Amino acid sequence: MRPELEVADIFRCHGPAYRHAHAGHLGRTERRVMAAIEACRTPVLGAHVEQCADCGLIRCAYNSCRDRHCPKCQALARADWLDARQAELLPVPYFHVVFTLPASVAEIAFHNKAAVYAILFRAAAEALRGVAADPRYLGAEIGAVAVLHTWGQALHLHPHLHCIVPGGGISPDQTRWIACKPGFFLPVRVLSCQFRDLFLKQLHAAFAADELRFPGALAGSADPAAFAARLKALAEIDRVVYAKPPFAGPEQVLGYLARYTHRVAIANSRLIGLDDGQVSFTWKDYVRREGAGG
């Protein structure tokens, strides 16, 4: 049954004005996604005929866009992704680790998505592997599944990386499994400092290589002295990593992540109304702990 209001309805009503007003930072990817959602299951994409093998009933149905961000598409792809990830789980405890970007970096990431989010993935992976490899903490080689979220429940900009990490790893000589201490993964403070230092070092390298752009209100940060001051302030921010064992096992967190790997930021079921250019929707007021995000 079709909901009374869909993301596609909002895009069709206000999409053209939004694209015009935000032309400066909307790239081809965002425009393509919006266009796909607007056209999904409409005459724009054509139609096909379905016939029941038992009663012979014939039904005409409009084609789907199949874009992974569409709230109405990709259910099968999402299920396949979840099955594949669950098949990779090891018979060991797992930990849920979240790496969060401070607000002052999030606004830079908003205009430099490819560059900054690539740095986020690299810095998180290097921090996890580096701290885990240290014999003072674990002394093993580990792996992880990481999924990027760029929004919170209230649809505010909140880039953070969810990682599902096994509680242990392979010994340096590749001959045995080294398990974490029961209920403890890695020291969060050490992991946070390592991540922060790696991220700032790579962000500075991107700036030096002229890979970042600073439009609008960020124009002042294009000055080397101003950018250095911003990095110095970021270096003083503490605790941007959060870690805990999944409450109901890794399957629960994988299921949570699967809802966002093949879907736009908000589901149609959360939409309440569209009146005078204002969208109403439901959201959960999660308590933020240790830098974790919704």
* Spatial extent as radius of gyration: 22 Å
Give the helix proportion (percent range).
Answer: 25-40%
Query: Structural class given helices, strands, pairing?
Result: alpha+beta
| Separation of the first and last Cα atoms | 28 Å
Query: Spans of 5+ residues with little confidence (pLDDT < 50)?
Result: 287-294
Give the oligomer, counting copies of the same chain as homo and different chains as hetero: single chain
Mean model confidence by pLDDT: 86
For the secondary structure, the number of strands is 10
Order of strands in the sheet with the most strands?
Answer: 4-5-3-8
Give the CA-based shape: globular
List the total number of helices: 8
Q: What amount of the residues lies in strands? A: 15-25%
**Could you state the order of secondary-structure elements as H and E?**
HHEEHEHHEEEEHHEHEE
Main features:
single chain, alpha+beta, two-stranded antiparallel sheet, 10 strands, globular, disordered C terminus
